[in-house]
Write a structure and sequence with these properties.
This protein is 49% helix and 14% strand. A hairpin with a 2-residue loop joins strand 11 (262-265) and strand 12 (268-274). The chain is α+β, with helices and mostly antiparallel strands and 577 residues long.
């Protein structure tokens, strides 16, 4: 169950925060430095340089600050000594009540604790000129909406033990009053009978995924249509306050920007973790596709991997206004998932037409980029992730998208091993024999596959005869040849005869070799019952694309081998002199 897994995540990894729910960690861009007499001493900017990739970037420092025990969308609910501008210094009429409530909370805390730092803050708010000086100092600063400002008197006021203890007690009372409204029942997560949280806190960090920046709800019953049997709010799905806080805390931690357990693709946030810590999770391997990591994974035996028992969790989420959408949820044994990931990379392996060798394993973003000019729809990313993690066959929409891009991209991009590997995986997932191999299969007589090889040979023939041209044979005829070979190849054969005529004159040896290959495929096609197929199905368009790719990679491999042999002969001759 998703909520149970999230609560368990908080129990094992966020125990310190779970033990003290009255505080949370937030970025705080500025301190208002206040003297003992209440004088405003200036602004303290709180940024630091941190590495991000190959660059150093500015980042706001974080601070443990008071957390609100209630929803602050309406009414006045100040936080102690650390809050948004509208509470700390707000002077507009619409913010006046919030500001006065903030000052009143400070005064009450200073009176109850006799803390010197709080008393300095109270003195500051009694000096209108000093408050105005602080407003002026902040007027020119660009702060994001909802940014938190902390009061400082020789250090952050909220760091004082007396201040923290006062807030904990304040939070406990306010939270108890709130939870009384939820009544009692059996918690669906813990199974214990006790108080039920009437509402749950907001999940943050989904603004870039379509959710409200202020936060979204995973479990919410804010409309009559969502309620059943007369139950109100979250009594429809009863969860204790402690377990509700735990799952929200877990989501907020997983959704934090910069968290290594989150990647965003196509408007979906992929959140992943393991029950016991591992250095590299399956999603990390799929995302990074480090050649050495993949090589080690592929070398593992088909049997047990010898791993200690562990569980892998993967959650796909996005936002829709004020709600968190769960796009999918996976809970699986880690060893099983790693075997699926190994199968994923095996299925994507294909020869590289630029080097003649096996292409490097593709990264997830490269596969998505091969499907669309801009970001593809979210379901494409979800399908790829499901295939990698669960081994579920890819949908035909992936194959159709890859083939559509293949027909419109420039010639060099048409040779992309990333897209070709994805097409190979799709064809092998959905259609039985013959299986598409990693490199050229000279014994495969499938008509669509041979037509793809033939187009690549005509491409090579033109290059041998004319060198580089603005638009080669595949630029002009690939779209037609890959969908209706019977229309394209008579024209290609006619062009090929002209190129052969020129090549026989300039490079007779090369002309003999390539003509022999072309004639062999023509003969095999004729033997299959039809010289050129009529319209190709989606499956056969995929086989055509792989045949074209395999032949180009084979031609490159031969060219590299010839060059190496020539260099070795030259080196041998030079040594004999």
């Amino acid at each position: 169950m998703l909520i149970q897994a999230l609560a368990e995540y908080a129990d094992t990894r966020l125990q310190e925060q779970l033990d003290d729910l009255s505080f949370e960690t937030k970025p705080v861009p500025y301190f208002l430095e206040i003297g003992r007499d209440g004088a405003f001493l200036g602004l303290i900017s709180r940024t630091e340089q941190v590495p991000r990739g190959k660059k150093m970037v500015k980042q706001t420092q974080i601070l443990r600050v008071p957390k609100s025990p209630v929803n602050r969308n309406s009414g006045e609910h100040p936080l102690l000594a650390c809050d948004e501008f509208r509470y700390v210094l707000g002077n507009e009429e619409k913010h006046l009540k919030k500001h006065l409530a903030f000052v009143a909370l400070l005064e009450g805390a200073a009176s109850a604790t006799s803390d010197p730092a709080l008393q300095s803050c109270v003195a500051f708010y009694r000096r209108a000129d000093q408050v105005e000086a602080a407003r002026n100092a902040l007027a020119d600063q660009k702060m994001p909406a909802g940014a938190v400002i902390a009061l400082s008197a020789g250090g952050p006021v909220v760091a004082h033990d007396a201040v923290r203890q006062y807030w904990r007690e304040h939070y406990r009372k306010a939270n108890a009053d709130r939870n009384e409204k939820g009544g009692e029942g059996m918690c669906l997560i813990s199974g214990k009978i006790g108080p039920i949280a009437p509402t749950h806190e907001k999940v943050k960090g989904v603004g870039s995924l379509g959710g409200q920046p202020a936060g979204v709800s995973l479990m919410s019953f804010d409309k009559d249509a969502f309620c059943s049997y007369g139950w109100e709010q979250n009594a429809n799905s009863p969860v204790s306050p402690e377990r509700a806080a735990a799952y929200v805390l877990a989501l907020n931690d997983l959704l934090k920007r910069g968290n290594s357990s989150r990647i965003d693709r196509c408007g979906v946030g992929f959140l992943f973790w393991t029950k016991k810590f591992v250095e590299k999770t399956p999603i990390s391997i799929v995302e990074e596709a480090d050649p050495e990591q993949v090589r080690q994974l592929l070398l593992l035996d088909e049997g047990s991997l010898g791993l200690a028992p562990n569980e892998f969790y993967l959650l796909g989420v996005s936002g829709n206004g004020g709600r968190l959408l769960v796009r999918f949820w996976i809970h699986e044994n880690l060893e099983t998932v790693l075997k699926n990931v190994a199968g994923w990379f095996k299925g994507l392996r294909i020869a590289n037409p630029f080097t003649g060798e096996m292409a490097e394993p593709p990264k997830l973003w490269q596969l998505l980029a091969s499907l669309a000019r801009e970001d593809p729809p979210a379901d494409r990313a979800i399908q790829l992730i499901r295939r990698a993690i669960l081994g579920q066959p890819l949908g035909l929409t992936i194959l159709a998208g890859a083939l559509a891009r293949l027909r419109v991209v420039p010639s060099k991009e048409r040779l992309s091993p990333v897209r070709a590997g994805l097409i190979r995986l799709c064809v092998n997932d959905h259609y039985g024999e013959p299986k598409m191999t990693e490199a050229l299969d000279p014994n495969l007589n499938h008509p669509a596959y041979m037509c793809g090889r033939l187009l690549a040979l005509y491409d090579g023939l033109q290059y041998q005869a004319q060198g580089e041209v603005n638009a080669n044979v595949s630029d002009r005829y690939y779209a037609l040849a890959s969908t209706y070979p019977a229309l394209a190849f008579p024209k290609l054969s006619e062009l090929g005869l002209r190129h052969l005529k020129k090549l026989r004159r300039d490079k007779p040896g090369a002309a003999v070799n390539i003509e022999k290959e072309i004639q062999e495929i023509h003969t095999r096609l004729a033997g299959s019952g039809a010289k050129f197929p009529t319209p190709l199905s989606l499956e056969d368009q995929g086989r055509f694309a792989i045949g074209y790719h395999h032949q180009r990679a084979e031609s490159m491999a031969r060219a590299v081998a010839r060059k190496q042999e020539r260099q070795q002969n030259e080196s041998r001759e030079e040594n004999q002199r």
